[in-house]
Design goal:
493 residues, 6 strands, 4% strand
Length: 493
């Protein structure tokens, strides 16, 4: 099958692309029959399965709701439970990720049987990504015994440290993927992101490995299977994302099944999404030109002919907003670019983030390099990703507030990385949990059951896990403090 769409969501039929994900994915008595989507090919054509998974993963990472709320990139004037730290199970995400992993394991098995090491490597990359999403949302999750079908319908929950650092863990999968891609000569499968470009897949494998090594860096001295600093240096010696052409992303299209999901929002759903107060303050203070793309001036200021941008404090109830006399007319809503069906990309990882990952490694003296140069390159890449002109980019870089200062290195790097990952999954939230940067104000109406001073770190496990896999669920709870508590810190925090 020849694909003509570069970095775009494939227009393959919905029957092939839609992944059902209607059960928990970790266990069920009818695992083989239920957890394999009959609409996705399970043999013969690796590319068809691959493109279905790429679409599912990319769509899932375009986050204008919970992830962006927890990162304080956006705020809401209603339907604000997540921003108020009233968490649920996020069972829909658990189901989707495990369904992806079932299909990806099928792809890896197919690649091995057909002796396609490059396709096998791509499977490892996608498996590592989906597994990281699971453990970073819930902590301990089924991993080593998951996706075994009827052979094991009660998989144990692996500890997060093992999921990341074990011999079959995330870091090793990505290292193995790059090794296979670097040494294999077989033809890569057609795909709707990189079009079978071997070097771009290698860059993704190494860039993701760097992301996850930095993520677990707070616990580097607890890792026994490898030296984290050595791994970071190894990553930075390998091919990494360098330009926006390397971004792991899909462009939304104009047809109904592949539109930007914001375009499909009903009246009232779009209007409650607003710029967050913390993002507005940061962008205005630094004269960030991306604000003109991401958001619109407040309706009142636009009507007066003197446009300004302002945001809503995170976690406000509608009652509190009334008491503060904050109305939607005084708040900036998402930019017009997001109201078009095909104007933006669903981004899973971008080159700007990779520059900031390297900058952090250098600033912390984990690797050699020029942190200031990497910081500047990251800003430039992010600006160009959003079509900011060169003169505006240079003005931003020339602003004394934005010039790299080694005395404020981590604060500056993390602030720019937070901006570069605007609407990219939960990446801003993960970074905040790891570093506390950029600093966040507590929600004005904090509904955290652990108390108003608590900041959650994870979601509750799906209720189905308690019913179907209770013995292993109970063991996982005991390993994480004895209760299924959203305030339980993850291992890497």
């Amino acid at each position: 099958m020849k694909l003509h769409i570069k970095n775009s969501i494939s227009t393959l039929s919905a029957a092939v692309l839609i992944v059902a994900g209607t059960v928990t994915g970790s266990c069920t008595d009818d695992f083989d029959n239920i957890n394999r989507d009959n609409n996705v090919p399970t043999s013969g054509n690796f590319s068809l399965q691959l493109n279905a998974q790429l679409r599912s993963i990319a769509f899932g990472q375009f986050d204008f709701n919970n992830g962006a709320l927890l990162a304080h990139q956006i705020g809401k004037t209603n339907y604000n439970e997540i921003a108020q730290y009233s968490f649920g199970t996020a069972e829909y995400l658990w189901n989707s990720l495990y369904q992806n992993l079932v299909n990806i394991d099928d792809m890896i098995d197919m690649a091995k049987k057909q002796e396609q090491p490059s396709a096998e490597a791509i499977g490892y990359i996608l498996k590592a990504f989906c597994s990281s999403q699971l453990t970073d949302h819930w902590g301990n999750v089924p991993y080593s015994e998951a996706m075994q079908g009827s052979k094991n319908v009660y998989p144990k929950y692996d500890e997060q440290q093992d999921i990341y650092t074990g011999e079959e863990g995330i870091i090793r999968l990505l290292q193995r993927a790059d090794d296979l891609l670097a040494t294999s000569k077989d033809q890569l499968p057609s795909d709707i992101i990189y079009e079978g470009n071997r070097m771009k897949w290698r860059k993704l494998a190494n860039s993701l490995r760097l992301r996850y090594l930095i993520r677990i860096s707070n616990r580097m001295h607890d890792v026994r299977t490898f030296d984290v600093k050595t791994q970071i240096a190894d990553c930075m010696s390998k091919p990494l994302m360098e330009s926006n052409e390397d971004n792991f992303q899909l462009k939304f299209l104009s047809d109904a099944s592949n539109r930007c999901p914001i375009f499909n929002l009903r009246s009232g759903e779009f209007e409650v999404i607003r710029m967050s107060k913390e993002l507005a303050d940061a962008m205005i203070a630094h004269n960030d030109p991306r604000r003109h793309v991401w958001f619109q001036p407040t309706p009142n200021s636009a009507a007066s002919g003197k446009p300004v941008y302002d945001g809503v404090p995170n976690g406000c109830s509608s009652t509190t907003l009334q008491e503060l006399n904050i109305t939607q007319n005084n708040l900036s809503e998402l930019g017009k670019i997001f109201t078009r069906p095909d104007a933006v990309y669903a981004v899973v990882m971008n080159a700007a983030e990779v520059k900031f990952l390297q900058a952090e490694a250098v600033a912390r003296e984990w690797a050699a390099g020029d942190a200031g140069k990497l910081y500047t390159e990251g800003i430039t890449l992010s600006m160009r990703q959003w079509q900011i002109g060169d003169s505006d980019i240079q003005s931003y870089l020339n602003n004394p507030q934005n010039k790299y200062q080694s005395s404020k290195s981590l604060e500056m790097i993390m602030k720019e990385k937070w901006l570069a990952n605007f609407l990219v999954g939960y990446e801003g939230w993960y970074d905040f949990k790891r570093t506390g940067l950029p600093k966040q104000k507590m929600p004005m109406d904090n509904r955290n059951p652990g108390g108003a001073s608590q900041i959650p770190s994870r979601f509750y496990y799906p209720e189905a896990e308690q019913a179907v896999n209770k013995k292993q669920y109970d063991a996982a709870i005991q390993a994480q403090g004895g209760t299924d508590d959203t305030n339980t810190k993850l291992w890497w925090e």
